[in-house]
Amino acid sequence: MYRGDSQRSGQSQASKVSPLQATAVATVTAGYVTGITVTSGGSGYTSEPAVMISGGGGSGAAAKAILNGDHVASVIVLNAGGGYDSGVPVVTIEPPSEVWGLGVRLVPEITVYGPPGGVGRVEWSPSLSPVAVWTPLTNVVIGIGGVTVVDLAAAASQRFYRVANPGATDAPAGMALIPAGAFQMGDTFDDRHEISGPELPVHTVFVSAFYMDKYEVTKALWDEVMSWSGGNGYRFGNSGSGKSANHPAQTMSWYDAVKWCNARSQKEGRVPAYYIDEALTQVYMTGDRTPYVKWNAGYRLPTEAEWEKAARGGTSGHRFPWSETDTIDHSRANYFSTSGISYDNSSTRGFHPAYAVGGEPYTSPVGSFAANGYGLYDMAGNVWEWCWDWLGSYASGAETDPRGPNSGLYRVFRGGGWQDPALSCRTAQHGGNLYPMNAINFFGFRSVLRVAQ
Hints:
Blueprint: E1 3-4, E2 23-29, E3 32-40, E4 51-54, E5 59-68, E6 71-82, E7 90-93, E8 109-112, E9 119-125, E10 135-141, E11 147-150, E12 159-164, E13 175-178, E14 181-185, E15 203-207, E16 210-213, H1 219-230, H2 254-267, E17 274-275, E18 292-293, H3 304-312, E19 384-390, E20 399-400, E21 411-414, E22 443-444, E23 448-450
Parallel strand pairs: 15-20, 19-22
Antiparallel strand pairs: 1-12, 2-3, 4-7, 5-6, 8-11, 9-10, 9-12, 13-16, 14-15, 16-23, 17-18, 19-21
Helix pairs in contact: 1-2
């Protein structure tokens, strides 16, 4: 608990120079706060001020001010939030203290700690009585190092604070929480031996928190949703396939995977993610088209950046989804082993001997190998996984929640499959030439949800 008391402030009789409040403006891309630019650094700051983001129709965005001397030099986005579709939100940087020489804040600053990506609600009460009434102050999404909020209305009264509903981000059944944070995206090993290429440059990417299916969508789950969808207006170009109920579903196009995500959302009573109109009113259910996306709603395909962050399992600088070694063998993944790749150390070559039975496809039951640091299975091998993005070149600088090019010929797929060599199973693998209407027996997918749905 934190007690904020208006009596703790004081006044100095010494002369003072009035400090200046810093100002900044937000940049919004597709409903997300992707950057904040300082328009005036202000002066007189003795500690990092709180940054508040309000308006614009969205929520969840968080940022941190960085000082240089006594002024704000920059503001970095910790969480891009979502739903900022009705205008650019207002960025308010807490003013410097008005009390000369004391360094005392005149309002409570509350820092909430917890697992990155976690969601809670800060509440206040005028007393700690057993019958005290607790009033919501704000919802928070935990970033790296916690998240700080300022109660500007508290200066006139005593207030106590608590975090309500902690643990609200418990992942839905069968999904894992991927916490918000930055990672290095791209090939740090230069495995393709290129000065520039599809996996370069290595660059910093910040990804907001989300949930991801622990397993590739199984044939059992695929069939369950498909059975519901047929009587509810959905039409698919491919019925999909799978070697058995606990093997990954495969042989669906990118369009089929997207429509299936919508059907899964509606089957569970969720707002769908994909629409055929810019106003996001007509749900995408039939045909092959590039849909509009409501990014903070429903099941959807991961972006390529979300997929790579999830595959890395909270580590950096490794070739595969595991961190104890940068080599691969048949004890770790279902793939096609060859002797010509230095980091392929498998004692068995060719198709995985345990699964090359009963005719192709030689998929394995989901979860047959160890999970990565986030609790995700089969992020290397088994089946390729469709992602949202059009295939394109990487940005040269830092990004926040990138979603790839606006158009293209091929959709991104990640992770490698049962018939692919070790090169294709690397976490940084980026490239390919598959059209979104193609459906092949070594292509599947897994879906994601934004946190706080």
